[in-house]
Structure to design on (303 residues):
């Protein structure tokens, strides 16, 4: 069987480049097309050496191949931290397995012959470029599916933020979801509203307000008005009208906290002009979040 080194070299450059490109997409490492190409050339040169110098046994060992993957990652990405390097390496191996699996799938369904020699797979195919093209299409579909799954999870994580509420020297922290459907505002001051579970913020509320929810009187407008009007916290509490599915003219009890903080560490931002509305049920089945943030508050935080 005749082996054309130039064709084999070019095929490996193309395949290595695509594998590194997928690795870059999933790892989100900053790189360039030139660096990806250089990393691909390193892998292709390795294959060429295996063919030209078959007596150098080191290149056929698992250790030699691991060293090759280390060099390819270093050339293509240059990760700054050790953990980032090994994370990128793991994604590189996964991407390699995806490409290899796609190629072998086509070989299996088309009953294409092949053999392995010195760690290199040789395929009997009338057009190797056809196999390469079909493999790329298959990998593109797989990568698209995985990318959408990862992106959807990433978006959900970004929409979950830590919320701290301060009220009369008491502070409570809870997880909050940025809810694009939450457009509630205080009708008097046009202040944005956050909806929070009663059980999550109970400890910072005055006793008389707690009794409203413990006795499930939050929908009894007369009782709520009477209790709030006789409370020493009258100036801090509001009645916020709302509309939802199954309830057109609802009313929620809200209060003005001393301030709130959204986010963690350096990204934490404080907001004073806000109303917290109290909800006497669970907002999430698994209690992953206990409050609903207005997108307006997040926009102000990142502006």
């Amino acid at each position: 069987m005749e082996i054309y080194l130039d064709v084999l070299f070019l095929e490996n450059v193309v395949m290595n480049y695509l594998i590194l490109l997928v690795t870059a997409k999933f790892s989100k490492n900053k790189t360039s097309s030139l660096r990806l190409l250089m990393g691909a050339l390193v892998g292709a040169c390795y294959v060429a050496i295996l063919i030209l110098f078959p007596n150098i046994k080191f290149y056929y060992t698992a250790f030699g191949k691991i060293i090759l993957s280390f060099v390819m990652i270093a050339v293509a990405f240059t990760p700054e931290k050790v953990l980032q390097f090994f994370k990128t390496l793991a994604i590189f191996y996964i991407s390699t397995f995806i490409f290899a699996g796609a190629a072998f799938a086509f070989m299996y369904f088309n009953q294409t012959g092949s053999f392995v020699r010195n760690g290199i797979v040789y395929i009997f195919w009338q057009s190797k470029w056809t196999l390469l093209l079909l493999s790329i299409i298959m990998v593109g579909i797989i990568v698209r599916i995985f990318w959408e799954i990862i992106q959807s999870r990433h978006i959900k994580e970004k929409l979950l933020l830590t919320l701290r509420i301060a009220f009369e020297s008491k502070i409570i922290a809870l997880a909050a979801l940025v809810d694009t459907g939450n457009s509630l505002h205080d009708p008097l001051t046009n202040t944005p509203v956050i909806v929070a579970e009663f059980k999550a913020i109970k400890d910072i509320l005055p006793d008389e307000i707690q009794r409203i929810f413990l006795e499930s009187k939050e929908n009894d407008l007369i009782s709520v008005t009477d209790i709030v009007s006789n409370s020493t916290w009258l100036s801090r509490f509001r009645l916020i009208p709302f509309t939802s599915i199954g309830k057109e003219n609802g009313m929620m009890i809200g209060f003005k906290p001393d301030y709130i903080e959204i986010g963690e560490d350096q990204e934490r931002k404080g907001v004073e002009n806000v109303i917290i509305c109290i909800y006497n049920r669970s907002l999430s089945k698994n209690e992953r979040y206990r409050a609903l943030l207005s997108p307006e508050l997040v926009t102000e935080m990142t502006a």
